[in-house]
């Protein structure tokens, strides 16, 4: 009897085909494989002395469900995909390898300290590291004022920890200078969402993509940056949906599109204004919806009248006919959706780019319905939740504004402080670096970030950090930024603690603890609370664990737009995730917004905004005629501090390269110098006709001397303060020798992990991730 014979499978009916649908569990296993993913006997599904702990991936905003495999000694040793309804048994290369960082030999297991940056680190006790940090905080703030010390958090932290970061900065440090690395990711989308809708999150769940008739993806390399999300795109295609991709590169997802708009970087708002121009001219707007549910439509209509396809075609470098085609395809569909990511957000016009996509969706009535809506794809695992509860410089928990007197009063009451004690709004992450240069900020704590790789214009960043009198960094690996600090605190990885994250759908999911941390390692929560105690604010930070922090977070968010009050750990484990707002413990959550046509503004209207296109901040010239744009690869994540240590991922993508069009005359592997006004670096050429001739692309996961962000410009969007990563003026020229990829920093006396270093020295680029390059490896 074969294994696929139904009679061979207990509980199946003879003669009935065995279902291959991963959403249908075999009989008797539903309790193990349901959406919540909790084993029937609650984490004790032992097979050969193995335990499966249900959790979620630590990387991108899709937040795939997974099981961590734990051996009889309590150590994580593997991973299996989980039939969570986000990912349906699928994991990407990063997810498959994520478990390897838990017991990695590069882990920091003791605090590191040095008196100055000329010295080598030495291992010290926790008391010594904490005492030094507190002494430096007190010295700097006594001499220069409370705001002379800053704090930078991260959007890969659990929401409980992001809540603590904001509270610690304002209550224990008493500084206004707190921000986070989500400033480099989602804030343009956040700004646009708040302006238009009065709420900052995607309007639809991923599952709505399966119902749409036309899907527009703008500035998102879904196939590499969010691989598991591709299943939703394919599902929509399977039922006949058309696909439009707007991207200067023919990415893997663009290659399969009905229409690929390969526009010039930095011209997105002109393109979408022109698309809406055609929609208006051809009478394809939903006038009844606009009249009932919006403000500002007349002004938007007058503005887009100035962007006929002929004008936008010249600005964007695309055919006029393609603009008309996109307008008819999107507006003519019964149900259409638009999703975008960093490609249109990492601009000095990032907020406005997002607003033009919102204008298109709302004007065509594609909002608040199954298969019709608008969303932004979160880059970091907690990119959504990481900005909701107070570590962003202008926000308090629950998405409250720090400049709103009533919001300030509410939080001061919850925190038990006087309203005069709550600092004013601070500045953005990049602005804080400039303040370091000017010695306005003289001390800093960094948590879950690596600005030496992730911030633009590396020379400025390095100078700012070097100017600090004191710098402490929390991390579990010694990042390039931590390697420049005075004190490094070794903290837990995601599998050694529990907490929640909110994915790109605004679905709150729970991560579970799979193993105890190594001796000498503490949670971020413990370190922040201990620092607060030593600073005299311990009564406000009596949190023994994440669960206790989450209970205060629930209360602090109650009654706000970002309401988590009805979400509990128990409900998350039972359901597999709940979309906020969720005001009561019997509320089902809100996976889809605007179903009643109302926004979250007091008047209930969607506030449409006018947008005028302007050129990028780095001007083109004869010396710099090209556009440099940057992005991710499928094998790596953000600054690469985690993924550049995992052998399988390093072997897949060992180094950065420069994608250039064949018209430049290079051959694959040729040393090509990329030059901008910030400097130059040499990469191997990946020659491909899947990129515009006037554009070059470099992935950004590596440090100097192979850092794309040594070349990018630190110009900011005036509203969101996001850097303009996706376009700067550049040129390319032949070079003699490719710049070498450095090994990741390691603790003192420990050599770089050899298995992750072998392919790092390979001088050739990987084969084209688009599948259309001419790369050949011999």
Automatic annotation (TrEMBL):
Family matches, as SMART domains: Molybdop_Fe4S4
On whether Metal-binding is a keyword of this UniProt record, the answer is yes
- Keywords, ordered alphabetically: 4Fe-4S, Iron, Iron-sulfur, Metal-binding
Identify the domain of life. Bacteria
Instruction: Show the segment(s) annotated as Disordered.
Output: 1-37, 380-402, 737-778
Note the CDD domains from the entry. MopB_CT_Fdh-Nap-like
The name of this protein is Molybdopterin oxidoreductase family protein
Species classification: Bacteria, Bacillati, Actinomycetota, Actinomycetes, Kitasatosporales
């Amino acid at each position: 009897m074969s294994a696929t014979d139904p009679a061979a499978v207990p509980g199946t009916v003879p003669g009935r085909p065995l279902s291959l649908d991963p959403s249908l569990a075999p009989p008797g296993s539903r309790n193990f494989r349901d959406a919540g993913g909790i084993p029937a006997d609650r984490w004790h599904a032992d097979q050969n002395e193995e335990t499966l702990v249900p959790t979620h991936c630590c990387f991108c905003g899709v937040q795939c469900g997974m099981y961590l495999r734990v051996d009889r000694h309590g150590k994580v040793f593997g991973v299996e995909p989980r039939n969570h309804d986000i990912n349906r048994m699928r994991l990407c290369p990063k997810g498959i390898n994520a478990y390897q960082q838990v017991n990695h030999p590069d882990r920091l297991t003791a605090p590191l300290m040095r008196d100055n940056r000329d010295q080598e680190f030495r291992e010290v006790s926790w008391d010594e590291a904490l005492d030094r940090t507190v002494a430096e905080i007190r010295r700097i703030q006594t001499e220069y004022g409370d705001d002379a010390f800053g704090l930078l958090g991260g959007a890969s932290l659990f929401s409980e920890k992001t809540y603590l970061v904001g509270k610690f900065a304002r209550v224990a440090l008493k500084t206004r200078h707190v921000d986070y690395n989500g400033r480099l990711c989602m804030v343009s989308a956040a700004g646009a969402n708040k302006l238009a809708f009065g709420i900052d999150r995607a309007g639809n769940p991923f599952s709505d993509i399966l119902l749409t008739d036309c899907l527009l993806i703008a500035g998102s390399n879904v196939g590499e940056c969010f691989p598991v999300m591709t299943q939703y795109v394919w599902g929509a295609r399977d039922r006949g949906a058309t696909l439009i991709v707007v991207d200067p590169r023919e990415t893997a997802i663009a290659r399969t599109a009905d229409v690929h708009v390969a526009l010039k970087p930095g011209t997105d708002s002109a393109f979408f204004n022109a698309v809406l121009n055609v929609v208006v001219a051809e009478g394809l707007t939903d006038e009844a919806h606009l009249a009932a549910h919006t403000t500002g439509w007349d002004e938007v209509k007058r503005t887009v009248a100035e962007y006929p396809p002929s004008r936008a075609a010249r600005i964007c470098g695309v055919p006029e006919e393609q603009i008309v085609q996109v307008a008819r395809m999107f507006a003519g569909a019964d149900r259409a959706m638009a999703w975008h990511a960093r490609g249109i957000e990492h601009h000095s016009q990032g907020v406005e780019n997002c607003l033009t996509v919102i204008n298109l969706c709302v004007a065509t009535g594609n909002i608040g319905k199954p298969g019709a809506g608008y969303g932004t794809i979160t880059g970091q695992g907690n990119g959504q939740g990481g900005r909701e509860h107070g570590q962003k410089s202008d926000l308090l928990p629950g998405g409250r504004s720090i400049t709103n007197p009533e919001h300030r009063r509410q939080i001061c009451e919850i925190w038990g402080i006087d309203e005069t004690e709550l600092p004013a709004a601070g500045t953005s992450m990049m602005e804080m670096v400039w303040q370091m240069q000017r010695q306005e900020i003289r001390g800093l704590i960094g948590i879950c970030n690596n600005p030496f790789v992730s911030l633009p214009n590396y020379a400025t960043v390095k100078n700012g950090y070097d100017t600090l009198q004191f710098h402490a960094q929390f991390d579990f690996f010694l990042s390039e930024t931590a390697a420049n600090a005075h004190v490094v605190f070794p903290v837990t990885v995601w599998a050694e603690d529990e907490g929640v994250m909110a994915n790109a759908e605004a679905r709150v999911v729970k991560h579970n603890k799979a193993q105890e941390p190594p001796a000498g390692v503490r949670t971020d929560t413990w370190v922040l609370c201990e620092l607060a105690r030593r600073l005299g604010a311990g009564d406000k930070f009596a949190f023994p664990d994440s669960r206790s922090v989450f209970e205060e977070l629930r209360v602090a968010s109650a009654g706000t737009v970002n309401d988590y009050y009805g979400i509990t750990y128990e409900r998350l484990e039972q359901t597999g995730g709940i979309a906020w707002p969720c005001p009561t413990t019997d509320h089902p959550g809100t996976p889809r917004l605007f179903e009643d046509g109302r926004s979250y503004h007091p008047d209930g209207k969607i506030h449409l905004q006018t947008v005028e296109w302007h050129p990028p901040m780095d001007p083109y010239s004869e010396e710099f005629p090209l556009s440099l744009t940057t992005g991710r690869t499928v094998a790596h994540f953000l600054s690469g501090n985690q993924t550049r240590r995992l052998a399988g991922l390093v072997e897949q993508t060992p180094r950065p390269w420069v994608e250039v069009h064949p018209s430049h005359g290079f051959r694959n592997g040729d040393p090509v110098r990329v030059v901008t006004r910030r400097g130059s670096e040499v990469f191997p050429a990946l020659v491909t006709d899947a990129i515009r001739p006037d554009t070059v692309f470099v992935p950004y996961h590596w440090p100097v001397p192979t850092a794309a962000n040594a070349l990018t410009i630190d110009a900011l969007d005036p509203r969101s303060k996001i850097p303009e990563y996706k376009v700067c003026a550049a040129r390319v020229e032949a070079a003699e020798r490719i710049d070498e990829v450095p090994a990741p920093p390691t603790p003192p006396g420990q050599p770089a992990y050899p298995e992750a270093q072998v392919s790092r020295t390979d001088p050739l680029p990987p084969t084209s991730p688009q599948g259309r390059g001419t790369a050949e490896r011999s």
